[in-house]
């Protein structure tokens, strides 16, 4: 199965993707992780996107589509989980074309529904926990960038909900439930 996890920053996409990797041998394709990796390893592309990411804005479609294209050529194992991709309609069209090219298709786009108020708390907590554990804190996990990330989500990514609804691929899960309950809800959708 190939699925997309949709939802604003802090909705729990990464957490749920990690569970699907562990339990279903799926492959998580997080463009955010790939971009952060490119920054850490200091590639030209990584340097180019750094300031944009720190502000909380989206990087160009061309860059993220290129990253995804490379990964789709690898082993699909239990299927791909697209985490944080697509984020624009152009990316959604590109994903469909890429999957088609590889003889694959998308099974579902799962929306993790949450309320904005809790996103700020979750993200600020994520930053605090990382700091306490001596781990690096994401440069965009601060209130100022978060405001921009949310705005980007509503302006550019939320139209994908209509897009996948029209394609009869959209499923919804209450992302405010406890993590294991959200996982169980996703599992129920995938096994239906
Ligand atoms: P994330 O880890 O998914 O929250 O992504 C962190 C940042 O990486 C975002 O705020 C964007 O700057 C960039 N990014 C990640 N995925 C995409 C994407 N699909 N399209 C554009 N920018 C992205």
Unreliable stretches covering 5 or more consecutive residues: none
The number of helices is: 9
What class do helices, strands and sheet pairing give?
alpha/beta
Helix content: 55-70%
Mean pLDDT: 96
Order of helices and strands: EHEHHHEHEHHHEH
User: Strand order of the main beta sheet, please?
Assistant: 2-3-1-4-5
Number of DSSP E strands: 5
Description:
A 5-stranded parallel β-sheet has the order 2-3-1-4-5, sandwiched between helices. The protein is built from 9 helices and 5 strands. The protein is α/β, with parallel strands linked by helices and 192 residues long. It starts with a strand and ends with a helix. The longest helix has 17 residues, at 116-132. 58% of the residues lie in helices and 12% in strands. The radius of gyration is 16 Å and the shape is globular. The relative contact order is 0.20. It binds adenosine monophosphate. Adenosine monophosphate (AMP) binds at residues 9, 31-32, 35, 52-53, 56-59, 64, 84-85, 87, 91, 140, 149.
Structure at a glance:
The protein is α/β, with parallel strands linked by helices and 192 residues long. It contains nine helices and five strands; from the N terminus they run E-H-E-H-H-H-E-H-E-H-H-H-E-H. The model has no long low-confidence stretch (mean pLDDT 96).
């Amino acid at each position: 199965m190939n699925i997309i996890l949709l939802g604003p920053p802090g909705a729990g996409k990464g957490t749920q993707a990690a569970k699907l990797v562990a339990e279903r041998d799926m492959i998580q394709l997080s463009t955010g992780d790939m971009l952060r990796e490119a920054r850490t390893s200091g590639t030209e592309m990584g340097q180019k996107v750094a300031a944009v990411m720190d502000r909380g804005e989206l990087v160009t479609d061309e860059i993220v589509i290129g990253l995804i294209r490379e990964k789709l050529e690898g082993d699909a194992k239990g299927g791909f989980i697209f985490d944080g991709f697509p984020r624009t309609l152009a990316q959604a069209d590109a994903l469909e074309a890429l999957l088609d090219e590889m003889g694959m298709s998308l099974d579902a786009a799962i929306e993790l529904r949450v309320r904005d108020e809790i996103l700020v708390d979750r993200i600020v907590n994520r930053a605090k926990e990382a700091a306490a554990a001596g781990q690096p804190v994401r440069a965009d996990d601060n209130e100022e960038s978060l405001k921009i990330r949310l705005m980007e989500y509503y302006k550019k990514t939320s139209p994908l909900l209509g897009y996948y609804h029209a394609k009869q691929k959209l499923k919804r899960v209450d992302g405010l439930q406890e993590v294991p309950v959200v996982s169980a809800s996703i599992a129920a959708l995938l096994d239906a």
